[in-house]
């Protein structure tokens, strides 16, 4: 193992907080016991929960106006892995990294896998990129990718996705996440039916290249960069495409990819009902695909989403193996701090969803007792689960207070000395 932070540093930081944590954990334990809930059982479930981090989220994001890099931010996949290892070492909830190609391209993927493993990391879903042109590429994606009217462009996009599968095999991934920026900005620009036909035909070629134990996760998005229509615009288009492609195709929900105020928890329930819920990209938003930190704007929505995910887990349909990832753009914070805070918000929403008295909820629902059904959710949402999360982290070797331990490590300052180049992050996503 080649872990980035010293164990002593984490132990020292924990020594300051451990007495208070034990007190808080026992107090919460007594409170939950009165409701018939064993706190250790919840803690164990939380301990087995994990969410992947995106390699591109380790660099500072930006907007189409500007990007403001910070000294010491990672400039290549190796440095990104190092930063992701810091997040995992402190939080113990982010053991996998989701790579993005060609951004994370290297010449030796077996070596990259070993490098990650020595840092205590594995690889999650592989993300393809057919929304940007790359240097030396034969065809432009200006006309779209999998749905382009240009056959050679579609072929290039198919080939790139197949290459991503090949890379993913070497990295130990089992999912290919496909988001295309394909769409239009003007009424009449494209034939809405034929562009979907082209997408389905090209996506089927990618699907056919999937190994048996792989899945293709279709990520829908209703706008941006195309603002009049997108080819896979919503969960309806996504599930229809996934159903047409076959059992290995599933839908991936990114919290920022819907119309304002859409009931995303209901989308979760719908997709699961048909065995098509494949994964989640967590972030938060105020206006659009803002990629703000998870739970920073609407923590209640995050809880309601997890409430449906827990229901889904209790009533599995097909092979329910949701792939969870943080998908955020960190424009004004240190990305490590944002991901530590987001991982806590996500695991915390899961913990709260586990605290829902399902029997009370279902009985109230059956009896049409609206207020008591809502209260079953509200009671769980109101519990401060911080001691459960901290205890799970402590037991797994992580930090009780992840942000305090991170700041004590002076990681970014140290990296600012070592990592000379600044501002060559993943780009604006
Ligand atoms: C873009 C999309 C989407 C996707 C990401 C990586 O909006 O969220 O997951 O690119 O391909 O940000
Ligand atoms: Mn996403
Ligand atoms: Mn997005």
N- to C-terminal distance: 32 Å
General shape: globular
- In DSSP terms (H or I, runs of 4 or more residues), the helix count works out at 15
Judged by helices, strands and strand pairing, the structural class is alpha/beta
Secondary-structure element pattern, one letter each: HHEHEEHEEHEEHEEHEHEHEHHHHHH
Number of strands: 12
Mean pLDDT: 96
Uncertain residue ranges: 423-429
Ligands, ions, cofactors: alpha-D-allopyranose, manganese (II) ion
Question: What radius of gyration results from the CA coordinates?
Answer: 22 Å
Strand order of the largest sheet: 3-5-6-8-10-11-12
Instruction: Classify the beta-strand content into a percent band.
Output: 5-15%
What's the main sheet like? Answer: 7 strands, parallel
Estimated helix fraction: 40-55%
Task: Summarize the structure in short.
This protein is α/β, with parallel strands linked by helices and 429 residues long. The protein has helices at 7-33, 39-47, 77-91, 109-118, 151-171, 192-208, 235-245, 264-273, 299-314, 335-354, 358-366, 370-381, 386-395, 402-409, 411-418; strands at residues 53-54, 96-98, 100-101, 122-123, 126-128, 175-178, 183-184, 215-219, 229-230, 249-254, 277-282, 323-326.
Verbal overview:
This protein is an alpha/beta fold and 429 residues long. It contains 15 helices and 12 strands. The protein has helices spanning 7-33, 39-47, 77-91, 109-118, 151-171, 192-208, 235-245, 264-273, 299-314, 335-354, 358-366, 370-381, 386-395, 402-409, 411-418; strands spanning 53-54, 96-98, 100-101, 122-123, 126-128, 175-178, 183-184, 215-219, 229-230, 249-254, 277-282, 323-326. The chain has a 7-stranded parallel beta sheet with strand order 3-5-6-8-10-11-12. It is globular and about 65 Å long. The two termini are 32 Å apart. Residues 423-429 have low confidence and may be disordered. One manganese (II) ion is lined by residues 219, 254, 281, 327.
